[in-house]
Structure formats: structure tokens, C-alpha cells
Design goal:
The chain contains 17 helices and twelve strands. It is α/β, with parallel strands linked by helices. A five-stranded parallel beta sheet has the order 4-5-8-3-9, sandwiched between helices. The chain has a three-stranded mixed beta sheet with strand order 10-11-12. Strands 1-2 form a two-stranded antiparallel sheet. A hairpin with a 4-residue loop joins strand 1 and strand 2. Helix 2 packs across helix 4 and helix 12 (310-318) crosses helix 14 (343-356). The longest helix has 25 residues, at 34-58. The N and C termini lie far apart (93 Å).
Length: 414
């Protein structure tokens, strides 16, 4: 903007005239001098440093993180321990005081979680964000494409985090982004223009490494490209998760070689301990599965999860703070009714989830089917009733029955 020499301009903040300052910058009806700009910058830097120190002071230790994870996630002990240390080190790194003379630069360590569907990957990410009190964005890698193609741009994952932080960019810059189904963007052999595979991996590299990215925050990003904010991804923790089906075969080929002939011992899928095999994973195995070297290099911490067995699924149904059985009991209690599950009924529910190959993720849909009629009747019947879910209800796929609470019947007879 050109200044009219016949007009006297002054800083809208400190009131100094244009001739008293080195530089005066014009805005829509306001002016700010270089001194005020420096002062604002110092204030923002101080606030950012205070925020980072507060993170360091309030950061729970790895054992505390692990113990809280243990309240929500059943099993996966090694995974919980690895994640506890990884996120502690990540946020401790953010909380370190800025020092230009610092000799050692602590680099951030993004995380790759590998495990079967329903093994708890998403729940672990959600619980970590809750423990650390940071915003969390969960996105599906399946929906991502290269910029310019139909689908979500990779920058949209940052927009999801900004929305989770209610528009607070500073909070978003210390949040967690969980990218699910990351194995679905593996490179596809023989495809020359892989816009949802290798192309997306390439597009994600910049934000995973750490950079200032301009993100559209209003309307459709393709329609209003000028309405943007800048977000720095250097302190955002990226956790990528995927089932990586058949990765165990890649690992077995490397560790044992190809065993052919009549004497070869070829275990069936049900006989193999896939979780144990996955613990042997190396970066080269991920490359053979279709991830590009640069992408693997930006996910240095690899966490493997076990498939959940029957005992683990029963514990998931009953033990965590937010266990499904506890939730249904509470809902029934709010209508004055009681809910009881026979132990064998719980085991049959767990077996059904294993047969469906859905892990813990499928437990809710099974319970919804079982409880649908009961939850429909209870509010109308009123209190003083009890529903017992028996093994026969599950085996015969029949609707559980409501009956009068035996204690009430005994009282009435008395």
C-alpha cells in the first residue's frame, strides 16, 4: 500500500507517528509499526514457551500412562508399554525449553501400529489423547487421494485436527492424528498412476516429517483456496494403524525361507500365532508389502498387536471402565431393571466375534442384536424386572425374556 505524503499516519497500537518508526505496515483501516510487531512476536513466543513448559510439568510418566491404558484396553501389554514410552518421549521433547545453543536436537518419532481388525488400535489412540488431554483426529487412509483428484486431500487430515481443537491452532499443533487402514495405501504393482496408493504416501511425507502447511478452513478447500491458516506439524504426533493382512507371510519367508517338499511343515492359519510372527517385523518387510522407503522412515516406532482370543474378548466385555456389559447394565438400571449375563453366554458371544473375524469391534453389534427387544420393552414395562442372558439365548438365537425380580415376588408373597 502506498502512503499519501500529505497525510500523517501513526501506529494504531502505540500511537507513534510514521516518521518516528522504522516501518509502518497498513491493514484494513489500521496501522502497526515494526516495534509493536516485535513486541507481539515476543508475547506469542513467551506464551508458546509457557504452554510447552506446562505440558512438561503435567506430563504423566510412562508407568502412569500404562496404568490408565490398562483400565480401558485389555491385553496388548507390550504394545501399551511401547506406546507409553513413545508418547512420553514425544511430549517431553515438546516441553523442553527452547535453547539455540542446544547441541542435541530431539527428533519426533511417529508410530506405526500393526494388528488385526478389532485388536484395539483405534481405542489405544483415543485413550492416549484422553490421557494427555490433547485434540485427536481420526481419519481413514482409504478416503485420501493426491491433491487434485476426487476424494480427500492429505491436508484434510490437518483440517480434522483443527476442528477437533475447536479452531485453536496452538492446541492442534500439539495434538494426535490417527490414520487408520494405512496398509490400504500400499503401492500397487503395475499401476502407473496410483492416486490412492503410492501417491498418497508421497503426499503424506511432508506433514509426517514436520512442516508449515497452509490448510483451508472454510467451505470446500477447492472452492475457497484463499481462506487458509498455517499449521506447523513438527510437534503433531502421527499414529498410523493397519491390519497388514499377509504381512506374516512376508516375515515367515524372510525368517524361515521357503519350505517345500513332502516333509515341509505347513501350519494352517488357525494354527499359526500371527501376533508372534508380526513381532519379528522389519522395515524391509513393510517395503515388500508396498510401503515406500521414505514413508517407512518417518514411522520409526513399530508397535504390533496380538489377535484377541476368547478369554481376552470376555474380559473386554466385562472389565474395562467402559465395558459393554457395564454400559447395558447401566441403561437397564436407569429404567429400574436388572441385567445378568451367564458366564457361558459371554463366552459364546466372544466366540461369535472370533468367527466373524471382527475382534472386539464386532462385540457391540452382537450385543445390540441380542438386547434390541429387551431395550424396546423395558421402558414400557417399568421397574422391578430382571433379564438374564443365558447360553441358550445365544445358541438358539432367541430373544431374552424379561421377568419379575424374584426378590419383589418374594416380598409380595410375604
Amino acid at each position: 500500500m502506498k502512503f499519501d505524503k500529505s497525510t500523517v499516519y501513526k501506529c494504531s497500537f502505540c500511537g507513534k507517528l510514521d516518521r518516528q518508526v522504522n516501518r509502518l505496515i497498513a491493514g484494513p483501516g489500521v496501522y502497526i509499526c515494526d516495534s509493536c510487531i516485535r513486541l507481539c512476536s515476543e508475547i506469542l513466543d513467551d506464551e508458546e514457551e509457557n504452554d510447552e513448559e506446562e505440558i512438561a510439568q503435567n506430563l504423566p510418566k510412562p508407568k502412569k500412562i500404562y496404568s490408565i491404558l490398562d483400565q480401558y484396553v485389555i491385553g496388548q501389554d507390550e504394545a501399551k508399554k511401547t506406546l507409553s514410552v513413545a508418547v512420553y518421549n514425544h511430549y517431553k521433547r515438546i516441553g523442553q525449553k527452547k535453547n539455540s545453543k542446544q547441541e542435541i536436537e530431539l527428533q519426533k518419532s511417529n508410530i506405526l501400529m500393526i494388528g488385526p481388525t478389532g485388536s484395539g488400535k483405534t481405542l489405544l489412540a483415543q485413550t492416549l489423547a484422553k490421557i494427555l488431554k490433547v485434540p485427536l483426529a481420526i481419519v481413514d487412509a482409504n478416503s485420501l487421494t493426491e491433491a487434485g483428484y476426487v476424494g480427500e486431500d492429505v491436508e484434510d487430515v490437518l483440517l480434522a485436527l483443527i476442528r477437533s481443537a475447536n479452531g485453536d491452532i496452538a492446541k492442534a499443533e500439539r495434538g494426535i492424528i490417527y490414520i487408520d487402514e494405512i496398509d490400504k495405501i500400499a503401492r500397487k504393482p503395475g499401476v502407473t498412476r496410483d492416486i490412492s496408493g503410492e501417491g498418497v504416501q508421497q503426499a503424506l511425507l511432508k506433514i509426517l516429517e514436520g512442516a508449515s502447511i497452509n490448510v483451508s478452513v472454510a467451505g470446500n478447500s477447492h472452492q475457497q483456496p484463499n481462506d487458509t491458516v498455517s499449521i506447523d506439524t513438527r510437534n503433531i504426533l502421527f499414529i498410523c494403524g493397519g491390519a497388514f493382512n499377509d504381512l506374516d507371510k512376508v516375515i515367515e519367508t524372510r525368517t524361515k525361507g521357503s519350505k517345500l517338499g513332502f516333509g515341509a511343515d505347513v501350519p494352517t492359519k488357525s494354527e499359526k500365532d500371527v501376533g508372534k510372527i508380526l513381532k519379528e517385523v522389519l522395515p524391509d518387510d513393510l517395503l515388500k508389502h508396498g510401503l515406500i522407503p521414505e514413508f517407512v522412515g518417518r514411522l520409526p516406532i513399530i508397535v504390533t498387536l496380538d489377535a484377541l482370543d476368547e478369554d481376552a474378548l470376555v474380559r473386554i466385555l466385562t472389565q474395562p471402565k467402559n465395558a459393554l456389559v457395564k454400559q447395558y447394565k447401566k441403561l437397564m438400571e436407569m429404567d429400574g431393571a436388572d441385567l445378568v449375563f451367564e458366564d457361558e453366554a459371554l463366552r459364546l458371544i466372544a466366540r461369535e466375534a472370533i468367527q466373524r473375524n471382527t475382534g472386539a469391534r464386532g462385540l457391540r453389534s452382537i450385543l445390540e442384536r441380542i438386547m434390541r427387544n429387551v431395550m424396546f420393552e423395558v421402558p414400557s414395562v417399568g421397574g422391578n424386572t430382571v433379564c438374564t442372558i443365558t447360553k441358550e439365548d445365544i445358541m438358539l438365537n432367541r430373544e431374552p425374556q424379561l421377568r419379575m425380580d424374584p426378590k419383589i415376588l418374594k416380598k409380595n408373597k410375604g
